[in-house]
Design a protein that fits this description.
The structure is a single chain. This protein is of the alpha/beta class. Helices cover about 35% and strands about 20% of the residues. It folds into 2 domains: about 60 residues, Winged helix-like DNA-binding domain superfamily/Winged helix DNA-binding domain (Arc Repressor Mutant, subunit A), CATH 1.10.10; about 180 residues, Rossmann fold (3-Layer(aba) Sandwich), CATH 3.40.50. The longest helix is centred in the first third of the chain and has 14 residues.
Length: about 260
C-alpha cells in the first residue's frame, strides 16, 4: 500500500538526511520507479522531503540544525525587536496587500498595526490570530505544511497559494546577512517561499537585529538590491554599509546612534 511506502520513507528521513532512489527500488522491488517517484513528490508537497538529484533530502535535517527554534528566538533581543517593529509599522499603508513572514521580529510589529483596512497575507498562524483581533484588517493565512520549530507554513501548497496572491508591501526578516550571500535562512522551504514573496513585492522592508549581520546560513532568499528598506538596531559593518549604499537601500538605525541612521 502507498501509505506503508510513504511511512517507510518518512521514517527513514526522520533518522537520516538523505534517502536515495536506489534504496527505494531495493526496498520495494515490485513497485514501479514512476510510482516511487510520485511518493517522493507527495512527501515534498507535505514539506517532509526535498526532492534532489538521486533521491530526497530530509526537511528535518535541513531545518533543525542551523536555526534556533521559534520559541527560543522569540525571547532573544526583545527590546531591540520592539524598536525595529515600531519603526517598521510606519511603512504600513492602508488599502494595500501586505505580507508578514513568520520571523519573531514581525510578531513584535502587530501591536503597532492600526485598526484600518489592510489585507494581510502571512505564513504564521500566530500572527494571523493576533492580526484578526485588531478588527478591520482582512487576514489570509497561507495553507500548507506547518513546521513545528519555525511555527510557519511552507511547502509546495504554500507556494501554489502565493501564485494567486498579489503583494504590494512585504515585511521580511532574515536569519543572516552577509556581503557574499545576501539575506539567508536555515530552512529550505521557508526560504523558497520568502524568495517568491521578495520577487513579487513592490516594496520590501527587511527587519533585522544586528546579531544577524555578517552571518550566513545555507539558503539565500533575497539580495540587498531587492530590498528598499532595511531597519536594524545599530551600525552595520562597513562592507555591508557600502554594499547597501551602492544598491540604494534605505538604512534605518532605530538607536539613532549609528552613522547609518536615516529618517523615514
Amino acid at each position: 500500500m502507498y501509505k506503508d511506502r510513504r511511512e517507510w520513507v518518512r521514517q527513514q528521513l526522520m533518522q537520516k538526511p538523505f534517502v536515495s532512489y536506489d534504496e527505494l527500488f531495493s526496498q520495494f522491488p515490485g513497485v514501479s520507479q514512476m510510482t516511487l517517484r510520485r511518493d517522493i513528490d507527495y512527501l515534498e508537497k507535505t514539506g517532509q522531503a526535498i526532492k534532489v538529484r538521486g533521491g530526497a533530502r530530509s526537511a528535518r535535517f535541513l531545518s533543525d540544525t542551523v536555526d534556533d527554534p521559534y520559541f527560543s528566538r522569540m525571547s532573544e533581543n526583545v527590546d531591540s525587536k520592539k524598536k525595529i517593529a515600531a519603526v517598521a509599522a510606519r511603512f504600513l499603508e492602508a488599502g494595500r496587500s501586505i505580507f508578514f513572514d513568520s520571523g519573531s521580529t514581525l510578531q513584535q510589529m502587530i501591536p503597532y498595526v492600526p485598526d484600518e483596512r489592510f489585507v494581510f497575507t502571512t505564513t504564521s498562524p500566530a500572527a494571523a490570530i493576533e492580526l484578526s483581533r485588531i478588527g478591520k484588517p482582512v487576514i489570509n493565512l497561507v495553507g500548507g505544511w506547518l513546521d513545528r520549530d519555525y511555527q510557519a507554513v511552507s511547502g509546495m501548497q504554500a507556494m501554489k497559494y502565493l501564485d494567486d496572491v498579489n503583494i504590494d508591501i512585504a515585511f521580511l526578516s532574515p536569519s543572516g546577512l552577509s556581503v557574499q550571500s545576501g539575506f539567508t535562512g536555515g530552512n529550505y522551504n521557508e526560504c523558497q517561499l520568502k524568495k517568491a514573496v521578495a520577487e513579487k513585492a513592490r516594496l520590501v522592508v527587511m527587519l533585522m537585529d544586528l546579531s544577524k549581520a555578517d552571518k550566513s546560513l545555507p539558503y539565500t532568499f533575497c539580495r540587498l538590491e531587492q530590498v528598499q528598506v532595511l531597519i536594524c538596531d545599530g551600525e552595520l559593518p562597513d562592507p555591508l554599509m557600502q554594499q547597501a549604499a551602492a544598491q540604494g537601500v534605505q538604512i534605518i538605525d532605530v538607536t539613532g546612534n549609528g552613522k547609518n541612521e536615516d529618517n523615514i
